[in-house]
Amino acid sequence: MATVSAPVGERPKRDVRRPKRQGLFHRMWRERSAYLFIAPGIIIFTAFTFAAFAFAIYLTFHRWSIIEPDKPYVGTANYEDALQDERFGQAIFNTVYFTGGTVLFTMAIGLLLALLLNQPLRGRGLLRTAYYLPVITPFVVAAILWKWLYNGDFGLFNYYLLKGHIIDEPLLWLSSKTLAMPAVMLMTIWAGVGFSMVVYLAGLQAIPEELYESAKMDGAGTLARLWYITIPMLRPSTLFLLVLGIVGSLQVFTQIFVMTSGGPVNRTTTMVYYMYLWGFKYYDMGYASTLAIALFVMLLAFTALQLRLIRQADR
Fold first, then answer.
1. What is the pTM of this model?
2. How would residue 315 be classed by pLDDT, with cut points 50, 70 and 90?
3. Given this model, what pLDDT does residue 20 score?
4. How far apart are the C-alpha atoms of 135 and 120, rounded to whole Å?
């Protein structure tokens, strides 16, 4: 059978027509059964998250007192007040100080414990459980316990420091301008070390043993293997803990509410606690919502920065 070939020097023709793209609503209708399954989650998210967020933005433009009938529109006055609020600036500083002091120490101590408890020690299962118990302890209970330990009259910390002749008189841990925030940070580190330890343990056990054996054959010592193998291989775990730690620390509230109530002289007042004061003590939901939006912007900025750093590290 004879075949028809294209003339010499002439490019053969081909069908370049693209398949017709289906519209969004057509694809949604085609997958309607899947949307029925996720509909409860979408409804709950819309009602309790998206709608609440939209209403919070609406509140920021009003002087919305929960005990007064009049709720006048004030435009951007709440935002202007927040920019000039010195106590809010102090709350931001306290929150950043708390975050910087707790996240890094929690991760560092968790890594040390993970390295220790990853060794073939006797009773390491019991030790792992003991270090993880603070994580599952209710935070309010832990805060009350540590508040008792810090008590200036009969707290155990002062008792043993006095017995050891380390101090001459009892310390007012939670009433001192210089000691109150470090005391709360110490309690937070104690409560969070177990979680960091477990995450790092999982990361350590995922590192191939062949890497360490090859390094030993090349003459690498313990510190060299730690620096060039362990720490780089734990980078995903470190980034995971860093993101969770910063986001969680920027929202610190429970231990501040239970242990110090923002004192002394606003030295432990954080952003969320300051927001709580305006909403449930001063009853101004408009200004409290404005502070919440400011916190949301900070969290969004920190998260975007961290995600960018993660992408750059993965390249």
1. 0.83
2. low
3. 53
4. 24
Q: In whole angstroms, what is the distance from residue 88 CA to residue 274 CA?
A: 7
Task: Read off the pLDDT of residues 66-105 as tens digits, 9 standing for 90 and up.
Answer: 888 899 999 999 999 999 999 999 999 999 999 999 999 9
74, 272, 296 from 82: Cα distances, Å: 14, 14, 14
Is the preceding omega at residue 264 within 30 degrees of 0, hence cis?
A: yes
**How many structural domains comprise the chain?**
1
On whether the CB atoms of residues 231 and 207 are closer than 8 A, the answer is no
- Which residue from 85, 61, 139, 144 is spatially nearest to 277, judged by alpha carbons? 85
Q: Does any domain span residue 73? A: no
The alpha carbons of the chain give a radius of gyration, in whole angstroms, of: 28
Residue found by looking up tokens 């289906």 in the block: 22
Region for residue 168 given its phi and psi (left: phi exceeds 0; alpha: psi -120 to 50; beta: otherwise): alpha
Comparing 11-15, 47-51, 137-141, 217-221, which segment has the lowest mean pLDDT? 11-15
Tell whether 54 is covered by a domain.
Answer: no
- What's 125's domain CATH number? 1.10.3720.10
For residue 217, the enclosing domain spans 87-282+291-314
Give the C-alpha separation, 237 to 242, whole Å.
8
Calpha distance 261→253 (Å, rounded): 10
Q: Could you read off the pLDDT of 31-49 as tens digits, one per residue? A: 888 888 898 988 998 888 8
Close Cβ partners of 237 (under 8 Å, ≥ 6 residues apart) = 199, 200, 202, 203
Q: What is the largest CA-CA distance in the chain?
A: 110
67 in a structural domain? no
- The pair of three-digit structure tokens given for residue 27, joined into one six-digit string: 């694809």
Q: Do the Cβ atoms of 245 and 107 come closer than 8 Å?
A: yes
Phi/psi at 62 (nearest 5 deg)? -135, 155
Is 243 domain-assigned? yes
